[in-house]
Design goal:
elongated; alpha+beta; five-stranded mixed β-sheet; 50% helix; single chain; two-stranded antiparallel ribbon; Glutaredoxin; disordered C terminus; 16% strand
């Protein structure tokens, strides 16, 4: 059974598609629609600042109202997934946050252990009640005991200066629509390095677990990464136009060729070691036979045997 979020996403996609088709069917309307951007969205978008630093000293409030700084959630060891939203948003923000939680559920790493998540409200008038309620619902949706008990997904709110300081550093451009009383903003989440520098931008209404996992692996700078995960990261690269990770055929062939070579050399090594052991056993048995024959030189020689029996000196020695 489809969840409510999936149903809303499906409906929104079909509505957008239908609108595009109708626009193309109406003579003279397509060019006008595509050529101009709505005034309410003129300052909405993303400017990527890869490896740019976030202002970690920026003050905020957590969901309990306690004063914190953004740097509290960057320990220099674990990457952070960063999201901008506001909790009175009628559709899109809740959809993005819920879909982000669904994607992170598919990641083997656990929030609060290997990485943290920070959601910052872009509404300077955001209430603590809204933040706390949204956080409780998201932790329940994520459903892992460690995260529920110890946190790891942090909901922050702050004044306009604090919000603009972080959004500007991240390259996140948003705009308030006075007529509709809503915030226009892009659909994007960010993966940030443990030192607070921007690592990756992931776009869309849904965020597949594979993309989130690769973004975290990339941002972790070698920490917590197994050999298998290193190979996975090597086989993928980030497509900046699509905002997703794509499989690189050449790298897959390189890794596959290396794996085949290792298996082949392993079989050859096993075969050669067995042949060597067989040769050693064969040469050892031949050496024992030769040594046994040389221990008694009179054996097999009747002349020497007869001389030994007729030798009076030998008899006297034995008798004495």
């Amino acid at each position: 059974m489809k969840t409510r979020t999936q149903t809303m996403t499906f409906a929104a996609t079909w509505i957008a598609t239908l609108a595009c088709v109708l626009a193309l069917l109406v003579p003279g309307s397509a060019g006008a629609q595509i050529a101009s951007t709505p005034r309410e969205l003129e300052h909405v978008g993303v400017t990527e600042h890869l490896d740019g630093p976030l202002p970690l000293s920026t003050p905020f409030r957590d969901h309990t109202g306690a004063p914190v700084t953004l740097g509290k959630y960057f320990d220099g060891k674990r990457p952070v997934v960063l999201q901008f939203a506001y909790h009175t948003c009628p559709v899109v923000c809740g959809m993005i946050t819920n879909n982000l939680a669904a994607g992170l559920k598919g990641v083997r790493w656990t929030i609060g252990k290997e990485y943290d998540v920070v959601t910052i409200s872009i509404d300077p008038n955001e209430s603590l009640e809204k933040s706390a309620a949204k956080r409780a619902g998201i932790l329940s949706e994520y459903g892992r005991d460690h995260t529920t008990k110890h946190g790891g997904w942090h909901f922050l709110s702050g004044d306009l200066a604090a919000i603009e300081a972080v959004t500007k550093a991240a390259g996140f451009e948003y705009q308030y629509d006075e007529r509709q009383k809503q915030w226009g903003h892009p659909s994007v989440v960010f993966v940030v390095k443990p030192n607070g520098h921007m690592a990756r931008y992931l776009y869309g209404l849904e965020f597949p677990a594979a993309d989130l996992r690769l973004g975290l692996l990339e941002a972790s700078e070698g920490r917590h990464i197994t050999t298998v995960e290193q190979l996975i990261l090597y086989c993928y690269h980030y497509d900046p136009q699509g905002g997703k990770y794509v499989l690189v055929a050449q790298r897959v062939m390189q890794v596959g060729g290396g794996a085949i070579a290792l298996v082949l050399f392993g079989f050859l090594g096993l075969f050669w070691s067995r042949e060597l052991m067989k040769k050693r056993k064969t040469s050892g048995s031949d050496g024992e036979g030769a040594a046994g024959a040389n221990d008694n030189p009179s054996r097999g020689n009747p002349e020497n045997s007869g001389r030994e029996r007729l030798d009076p000196t030998a008899v006297s020695v034995r008798g004495g």
